[in-house]
Amino acid sequence: MTREDPPLRIRLPVELKKQIQELAAKSHRSMNAEIVSRLEFSIAAGAVVQETGWDVEHGHDTPEFRLAYQRSQPLEKRVTDLEDQVAALLKIVAKK
User: Fold this and answer.
1) How far is the C-alpha of 41 from the C-alpha of 47, rounded, in Å?
2) Which of 53, 57, 58, 69 ranks highest by number of CB atoms within 10 Å?
């Protein structure tokens, strides 16, 4: 994502904005980066739902979906750990 990417103005309910601010701070990201990350995840999840046939409206689960979810958990933790490490390194660099 670059500054050349087209901007998009949206209105958010106050509570949703607060949640995004909190999540962005926890992830050491800007609000924009947090929103983009969550939108990308949502779109990717939608593709998985379509490919596996998981029915969101009725909550029908499939073995493929459960397996994909189980496999994603260690990756999600690893990403969080790496984000924490990067934030710690940035703090060290900022002090110098």
Assistant:
1) 10
2) 69
- In the numeric block, which tokens belong to residue 14? 């106050």
* Residue 60, strand partner residues: 55
Q: Sign of the C-alpha dihedral, residues 7, 21, 10, 41? A: positive
Segment 11-68, tens digit of pLDDT? 999 999 999 999 999 999 999 999 999 999 988 888 877 777 666 555 556 777 778 8
Going from N- to C-terminal start, the domains of the chain cover 14-95
Q: pTM of the full predicted structure?
A: 0.54
Length of the chain: 96
Secondary structure letter of residue 7 according to DSSP: P
